[in-house]
Amino acid sequence: MQTLTFDDLTHVGTIGRKHGTRGELRLQLMRDIVNDDGDVPDCLFIEIDSLPVPFFIDEWRERGTDVMLVKFDGVDSDAQAANLTGCSVYALSKELADEAQFRSWQAFKGYTIKDEAGNVIGEITAVDDRNENILLYVSSPMRQEEIILPFHEDFVRNINEKERTLQLFIPEGLLNIND
């Protein structure tokens, strides 16, 4: 029997706060996990002590565009749910659609931005996605200030969810580090 590793999984979100008193949790989704038939995987994996621990979904319902309320089998109390808040959530990569769409760019808060050459630009501190012109607020150690980058999906060169990095094409002149 093959051991499951994070290489077999795709990061799909983070558990937010508890919802109610019977163990239900708010799952902040960064990727779509609902398949074409309107179903979700039977099992999600929660990172606990750096290991992917399987949790079977008992009930779920969507709440807005990037939040899902989830009740896991065996998580029946407020205290059990509280132990899972803040944990990263994964799904088996093979169970997701080939082009699982991102639900929210908000999930990239805390990611490090790198340019195409691999140079660190800074860390995303906030995302303004209230309209079609998405803006990334980046704390830049090189400039010792916050910079604002306009963002588009076409700029993405690589997303490393394990290292929490976002490598972007940054148009020439947009980011002049020396000024």
List the helices and strands and how they pair.
Elements: E1 9-19, E2 24-29, E3 43-48, E4 51-62, E5 67-72, H1 78-82, E6 88-92, E7 112-114, E8 120-128, E9 134-140, E10 145-151, E11 156-160, E12 165-168
Could you describe the 3D structure shown?
There is one protein chain. The mean pLDDT is 82. The chain has one helix and twelve strands, in the order βββββαβββββββ. It is 3% helix and 45% strand. The chain has one helix at 78-82, and strands spanning 9-19, 24-29, 43-48, 51-62, 67-72, 88-92, 112-114, 120-128, 134-140, 145-151, 156-160, 165-168. The radius of gyration is 18 Å and the shape is elongated. It is mostly beta strands. The strands form two sheets. Strands 1-2-5-4-3-6 form a six-stranded antiparallel barrel. It has a six-stranded mixed sheet with strand order 10-9-8-7-12-11, with no helix packed on it.
In round numbers, the mean pLDDT is 82
Query: What is the CA-atom radius of gyration, in angstroms?
Result: 18 Å
For the record, give the distance between the C-alpha atoms at the N and C termini, rounded to a whole number.
57 Å
Number of strands: 12
The largest β sheet comes out as:
6 strands, antiparallel, barrel
- Counting DSSP H or I runs of 4 or more residues, the number of helices is 1
Strand content: over 45%
Percent range of helical residues = under 10%
Secondary-structure element order, N to C: EEEEEHEEEEEEE
What is the assembly state of the chains in this entry?
single chain
Pick out the low-confidence regions: none
The structure class reads: mainly beta
Strand order of the largest sheet: 1-2-5-4-3-6
What form results from the Cα inertia axes?
elongated
